[in-house]
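User: tokens in, sequence out, please.
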């Protein structure tokens, strides 16, 4: 009995130390992210920037932005929701916090469940996914060219939460498709990324679709569905997301997130 209590106590100490170490690593990564990107909030949105854009894209920006609105430099986000660790597994509850930079593409996300903590990131032009069981045992540490591209795609798609990043720039352009969709192309570090973006009649962006590496496997269709628009910090953004893989055998959702908090231009941790 005494030995069992001692072992239980040691396990508790190991878990606490692991949680502290993981928190320190995450805090340092957030600081590293923010030090790499500049403040661009001296730039402002002008409606004349929309003149050459496809009509549904004009409809979107006219709906969500105000003339003279400053560009977003940094974003910090909190959410709750449900997540699947594999397409064939069940849903688990998850909470998350995320930090993003705009002038230099970058983000870091930490998702916390009852069993594991995942960190998804694009920092210093490198993508990485780390999953840690009970804050102690690393069960996944994925990186490489496929993850560089995949994590940059995530940052780009999630620009719907910091939408001045969707305005045309030297790296980003819009091309017409039809009255309710347009192609978004983003060129960065010898990578050329794209989304087919769908808008509804009032100008809400409702879906982003692209090709993304499914882990270490080949390219598959990856979709972000966005709904439940609300004005937060003077910007109209979606607050409910359904992220899925559109495979030959059907659509397989793996993340359903609800945004609970968004703050802009505060380059520091919550």
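Assistant: Sequence out:
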């Amino acid at each position: 009995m005494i030995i069992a209590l001692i072992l239980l106590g040691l396990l508790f100490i190991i878990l606490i130390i692991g949680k502290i170490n993981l928190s320190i690593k995450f805090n340092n990564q957030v600081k590293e992210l923010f030090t790499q990107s500049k403040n661009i909030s001296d730039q402002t949105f002008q409606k004349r920037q929309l003149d050459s854009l496809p009509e549904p894209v004009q409809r979107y920006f006219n709906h969500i932005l105000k003339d003279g609105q400053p560009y977003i430099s940094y974003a910090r986000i909190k959410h709750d929701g449900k997540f699947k660790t594999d397409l064939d597994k069940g849903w688990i509850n998850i909470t998350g916090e995320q930090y993003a930079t705009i002038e230099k593409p970058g983000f870091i996300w930490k998702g916390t469940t009852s069993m594991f903590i995942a960190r998804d990131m694009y920092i210093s032009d490198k993508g990485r996914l780390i999953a840690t069981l009970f804050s102690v045992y690393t069960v996944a540490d994925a990186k490489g060219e496929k993850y560089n591209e995949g994590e940059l795609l995530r940052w780009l798609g999630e620009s719907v939460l910091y939408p001045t990043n969707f305005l045309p720039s030297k790296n980003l352009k819009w091309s017409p498709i039809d009255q309710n969709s347009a192609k978004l192309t983003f060129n960065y570090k010898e990578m050329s990324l794209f989304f087919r973006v769908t808008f509804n009649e009032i100008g809400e962006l409702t879906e982003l679709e692209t090709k993304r590496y499914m882990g270490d496997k080949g390219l598959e269709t990856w979709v972000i569905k966005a709904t439940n628009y609300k004005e937060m910090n003077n910007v109209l953004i979606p607050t409910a997301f359904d992220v899925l893989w559109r495979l030959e055998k059907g659509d397989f959702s793996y993340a359903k997130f609800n945004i609970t908090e968004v703050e802009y231009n505060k380059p520091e941790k919550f």
